[in-house]
Amino acid sequence: MRFSASFLDRASQAIRRRPTISKLIVICALSSGGVLAYADAKSDHDFETSELTRKKKLVVLGTGWAGTSFLRNLDTSQYDVQVVSPRNYFLFTPLLPSVTCGTVEPRSIVEPIRKIMHKKVGGIKFWEAECYKIDPTNKKVLCCSNIWTNMDGSGEFAVDYDYLVIALGAKPNTFNTPGVVENCHFLKEIEDTQRIRRSVMNCFERASLPELSEEDRRKNLHFVIVGGGPTGVEFAAELHDFVSEDLAKLYPTVKDLVKISVIEAGDHILTMFDKRITEFAEEKFQRDGIDVKTNFRVVKVSDKAITMTSASSREISVPYGMVVWSTGIGTRPVILDFMKQVGQADRRVLATDEWLRVPNCDGVYALGDCATISQRKVMEDISAIFRVADKDDSGTLTVKEIKDVLDDICERYPQVELYLKSKQMKDFIDLFKDANSNAVKESKELNIEEFKKALADVDSRVKMLPATAQVAAQQGNYLAKCFNKMKICEENPEGPLRMRGSGRHRFHPFRYRHFGQFAPLGGEQTAAQLPGDWVSIGHSSQWLWYSVYASKQVSWRTRFLVVSDWMRRFIHGRDSSCI
Amino acid sequence: MRFSASFLDRASQAIRRRPTISKLIVICALSSGGVLAYADAKSDHDFETSELTRKKKLVVLGTGWAGTSFLRNLDTSQYDVQVVSPRNYFLFTPLLPSVTCGTVEPRSIVEPIRKIMHKKVGGIKFWEAECYKIDPTNKKVLCCSNIWTNMDGSGEFAVDYDYLVIALGAKPNTFNTPGVVENCHFLKEIEDTQRIRRSVMNCFERASLPELSEEDRRKNLHFVIVGGGPTGVEFAAELHDFVSEDLAKLYPTVKDLVKISVIEAGDHILTMFDKRITEFAEEKFQRDGIDVKTNFRVVKVSDKAITMTSASSREISVPYGMVVWSTGIGTRPVILDFMKQVGQADRRVLATDEWLRVPNCDGVYALGDCATISQRKVMEDISAIFRVADKDDSGTLTVKEIKDVLDDICERYPQVELYLKSKQMKDFIDLFKDANSNAVKESKELNIEEFKKALADVDSRVKMLPATAQVAAQQGNYLAKCFNKMKICEENPEGPLRMRGSGRHRFHPFRYRHFGQFAPLGGEQTAAQLPGDWVSIGHSSQWLWYSVYASKQVSWRTRFLVVSDWMRRFIHGRDSSCI
Predict the structure, then answer these.
(1) Which residue stretches of chain A have pLDDT < 50?
(2) C-alpha to C-alpha distance for A21 and B89, rounded to whole angstroms
(3) Does the residue B484 lie in any domain?
(4) Are A444 and A474 in the same domain?
(5) What is the enclosing helix (H) or strand (E) of A386?
(6) Nearest-CA residue of chain B relative to A216?
């Protein structure tokens, strides 16, 4: 197949190329010989490198926030990178609720992985397939293509690895409630949003058909959201806006029959946010006519009705038009199987150490929603810490000895710092003050028992990281940087002192920095909880939300599309075609 | 459900409202009492009107080009309008091939019918359902909802009509070739384009998987288009552009294995166009490496291979990755059933008269792709024409007598005018010259036999209208205008003289005006055939194509979206995510 390019094509392609190309063209105009020489030198160099040292095989499973952030920051020239994912694109998940009602279009929040990666030196190999088994014993993953039609064989293949990065994400958690998988929509993949959008429109069209009782119309226009977390609440708000701003005009005969219910098992919605935000959200929803049912637990979903219970009432069954299930995440089967193989069969979620490594599993890393960091407790290592700090082996620690290893302890056990902050202590030394209830002199020496007593409550501050895009992206970025300096840090380790060994850890452990979280509440109002417990609610936060989400887009294409989608929504409203 | 609107909402909604609202606000500021009085007077008036005269029930089946054009131009205040269609939106079909490869997004070429109609006085009722039976005897249509989930009953209902407008469109024609429905994609609905786009991407992803032979990769990247008409050719061109401009960069390892084939049963592709265009297209496709197989007929499509024959060769079977079937249109089952009821069982397509009325069927009209106008032949009515023209009953026609009825004859039988044009005659009188091979004096009189002889070949010029959006839209517009002046024209008929009756026809018969046709050939080149056999090929026609298609959009929303899609494609290319 030959390709001809017209003038316009060429112009268009030139625009799309990176700016360095234009620099090359300038150099080329000055001295084409020089450029040719440069090009030659480069390819020679590449050739030599690949011949002399075989690159280590790095396999990445998944192209979500963690996987993509890892790949974007990775120096791909150092490794033979292979990516396996059933999705050949990165999905900007925080905008999923906006897509359900057409505020933003699906294509505006996806970017092909090949496009993100195709300018990287060395490149990556991408296989659109699902990993169905991880085999750490033989260092390989078994994969199966989902698009294996019109071909012989089964579409299965194995990929060997030296390093494996597991970033497979999670699946929706149904708590084994009967009928949920069959009758509810989830809100995790781009296809979910398309199904929800079609389903909302179908409910309106169905409720508008002739020869229906008002009861049937009401039933069809009852939208139920199970789960009062950020996703469920944002979807409820989006749906309310869609109905009031767009559909009410087009379906005037049924618009007053619409009901939106949010069912939450806890006392309040948005419990992960500050109390002020929760209260504001509940009040706003009440004003908007969104029915928030707290302390209700869904026990069954049939094709016609949703059944729930509460402490104060018997089982009630409510007919519905559509249910969206958004109650948190569960572990994927392939991860559960892998956990059995690596001795984590009794855990709910795959655990890694603070360097995102899966314990007892050479070269395997896990990050994002599919794993959780199991922070080592201070009390487990207390004797080792004491031994490391006690340089002169005197059996007691001087304040100076403690100060010498303080930074390493705080880095290795971040709960120490959190504990100090929570108790409003300025210094590590204050800990011992607290324990002994009196002033500590610089000359004071502590024995192991006193040391233990002082640190006894520190581990209560160990915090699990939330399953958010922000955490996954930071983990991906962190791990990529570790991989990039793998060789350098082998010789010059940069991490804290090893407490139960000698020398230093190769890398700093992963530390999460929280930049805040948004909860869009509809009607151009957003609640924002920023670091330092700074809370902002209203239209100004909505503009902050617009700017942050536009700036966080993975490419200029999606940024252009998302912003023009917002403009389009503002001028022309949302589309209500059933497609 | 109550709706609250923030400042931004209100601003946004105000922009979307029609400008008259702002005038009302101005009046309101001047004299709020006056406005209230006006509002009261208006609703009283409405009430009286609806009480005194029951509006006739007008049922429209279908929301394609014909149905939508009819609805947009209809004075809905005169009728009780009900629309039945399985699609709640109008689809701008000429851009379907652009959507298959992501040059334009699906939502950019659809507009909800309710949105198109919601500002119309009186409004319309829309039922999202499929009409499965037309019952002209009882003047009702039977419909069935396609979205009848989670409801009791069957979702069936009947709609009574006084006037019925059938604009149901057509279905793809498979010529009963085995395996086509199961294995091929069509290109008629918006869902088809989404499936094709996903399928193209799946072929590329599948061909890129590890452990495949080159033969398997080639097979997966063989794209077959059956049918060398405008749709098939445009799709082939779009696909070629998509591959060469976007996918070649992202799939460098397999890009040279891509093959696009166009299979055409005739001697050439684009046979409905001028020979210059056909030749240019065939040459361009050859340069682009698109394999055009003319004189090949497809006899079977299995899940792995497509089988075809030609006069010169035995059956050949070619493996493929994807087949798009685009060989013309067939009649829908509901129309075939209706044809049986109205005595057209032996016809292939539903026939109407020149006023788009279904013969022997009171109040039923058919237009667009589901029907064809059966032009009355001059020779069938020759005696009646003679009798009407022969005012003095002399048994002979003078030239003056002929001239008196000439306009009516030409309007009733447009083939007469076409015949004169084709023979390069300036005047009707020349016809008689031609027949008698000598000059005709003004005083000459013709008897019936001479009259018949002169008009003998005229009916050879009867032309079937093509099944295009242009024809359907003009028919819808024409019929709406007829409906709008139904009462006026009942008293003052505007049509030509009735030949086989007395008086005049109520309306002018439908006349199609051809504004030209485009054939986009890829690489920013388009062939345009404009009225007067004016042919233009190349980049300038592409810009004409852009302007015409942008201006023909049904709403400002779709116009804005289509133009911004073109810009987005030009700057960022097409998206290759498998969604």
Answers:
(1) 1-5, 7-8, 18-51
(2) 45
(3) yes
(4) no
(5) helix A382-389
(6) B151
